[in-house]
Amino acid sequence: MRVVLSTYGSRGDVEPLLGLAVRLRELGADVRLCAPPDEEFAAGAAALGVPLVPVGEAVRPLVTGAVSAPTDFPTRVARLTAESYEAVLGQVAAGGVVVATGLFPSAAGARAAAEKAGAGYVYAALQPTVLPSPHHPPFRYPGRPAPPEGADHTKLWELDVESMNALFGGAVNAHRASVGLPTVANVRDHVLTGRPWLATDPVLAPWRPPADLDVVQTGAWLLPDPRPLPAGLTAFLDAGEPPVHVGFGSMPMRGAEDVARLAVEQVRAAGRRVVVGRGWADLSAGGNTAPDDCFVVGEVNHRALFARVAAVVHHGGAGTTTAAALAGAPQLVVPQMVDQPYWAGRVAELGIGAVHDTAVPTAESAAGALRAVLAPGIRERAAAVAAGIRTDGAEAAARLLVDRS
C-alpha cells in the first residue's frame, strides 16, 4: 500500500509526519513524504529511510528573511497549490491514500492530486483550533474585516468560510479547473472534509463534542528519538541544579534576541542556570557566549533534555508543548501567533505552567511569570499530567490507514 504524506511548513508540520511514516513502515506500507526541501528535513527523512519529495522552496529562509508584501499572497497561494499537487500526483497511485496537513494551499493541492489519481484522502489537523467547532473561534486572517461585535463561535465559523473563499478560493479553483477537476463552492470544508483526523493528545488538546465534524482523534504523532544528549550538555546538566531551558523552536521571532536575552537575564536573576536552544531564530546567550551558568545547544533530543530541566520557556508550538508535557517539565509559554495562544491556554488550564500574556515581556513581567512557573506544586502537577499522555498516536493512525486497504 502506498501512503503519501504531504505538508508544507516548519518543523512542527514535518516532524509529526515523520513519526507517522516510521509506524507505517513498521506495518509494511510504502511511504513517501512530500515536504519542503530544507536540509534538516531531508536529513531527518533520509536517516529514517523515508524518501522525501521536495515541495517548493525551503521554509527556513522564507520565515527568517524579509516579510513578503501582502500583494504577493495570491501568487504564493497559486504556486504552493500547484507545487503540492505535482509532488503528490507524482507519488500517489489509485488505491493508495494521501494524508495532508500544513499550510492550507498545500493541503488543497494534495487533495486535488488524490482526486485526480483516484486515491483516498485524509486531512490531519495538528491542533484543534483549525477545525470548526462551537467551542473555539477560528483564526483571524490579517486583512480580513473584523467580525461583528458579540458574534458567537458558530457565526464566526460561518464567516470563516467567506474569508477562506476570499483568500484561497480563486487560486485553488483556478488550479482545479486547469487540471480537469470541478471547482468547489466551499474550499475550506472541501479540504478539511467532514471526517478530519486530529493528531493531538486527548489530555493536552481534546476534541470537545458536540460539533458538526466527525473528528477522529488519534493522539499526537511522535517521532521516536533515541539520541543521547551531547557530552558537553550532559556535563553541564550534571554540574549543578536543573537549569531552565529557553528556546523558541522554528519560530523566526524577529525580536527573539531581545526576548531571549530578557528571559536569560531573569533566569539568572532568580539564581538558576540556563540552557538556550538556538532554534531558527539563532538565539545565543547574549554578550557572554559561554558563561558557567549558560549553555547554548542546537538540535537535540528535547524529551531527554526537558526531563532534566527545572522549566521550559518557549513559544507554545504544538511539538514543544507536547515534548515538555511528556517530560513532566513545568512550562512558561510566551505565545506569538496562530495556534500558540491555544497551547498556552491549555498549559494554564491543566496547571502545568504559566503564560506570559503579551508576546514581548518586560523585565518585571518576565520575572513574575518565571516565579509562577517555578512555584511549588507545578512540577508535581506536570508529572501527574505526563503520566496520562498517550505515546501511541502515530501507531494508531498508521493502523487506521493500513486497515483502509
CATH overall fold name of the largest domain: Rossmann fold
Order of helices and strands: EHEHEHHEHEHHEEHEHEEHEHEHEHHH
Q: Quick check: average pLDDT?
A: 90
CA radius of gyration is: 21 Å
Kindly report the spatial arrangement of strands forming the biggest sheet.
3-2-1-4-5-6-7
What can you see in these coordinates?
By secondary structure, the chain is an alpha/beta fold. It has 2 domains: 2-220 and 391-403, Glycogen Phosphorylase B (Rossmann fold), CATH 3.40.50.2000; 231-386, Rossmann fold. It has helices at residues 11-26, 39-48, 59-64, 73-89, 104-117, 153-178, 187-192, 231-238, 256-269, 302-306, 318-327, 340-350, 363-373, 378-386, 393-403; strands at 2-6, 30-35, 52-54, 97-100, 120-125, 197-198, 216-217, 244-247, 274-277, 294-297, 311-314, 331-333, 353-355. The strands form 2 sheets. The protein has a 7-stranded parallel beta sheet, sandwiched between helices. A 6-stranded parallel beta sheet has the order 10-9-8-11-12-13, with helices on both faces. The longest helix has 26 residues, at 153-178. It is globular, with a radius of gyration of 21 Å. The model has no long low-confidence stretch (mean pLDDT 90).
Give the SSE layout.
Blueprint: E1 2-6, H1 11-26, E2 30-35, H2 39-48, E3 52-54, H3 59-64, H4 73-89, E4 97-100, H5 104-117, E5 120-125, H6 153-178, H7 187-192, E6 197-198, E7 216-217, H8 231-238, E8 244-247, H9 256-269, E9 274-277, E10 294-297, H10 302-306, E11 311-314, H11 318-327, E12 331-333, H12 340-350, E13 353-355, H13 363-373, H14 378-386, H15 393-403
Helix pairs in contact: 1-2, 1-15, 4-5, 4-6, 5-6, 9-13
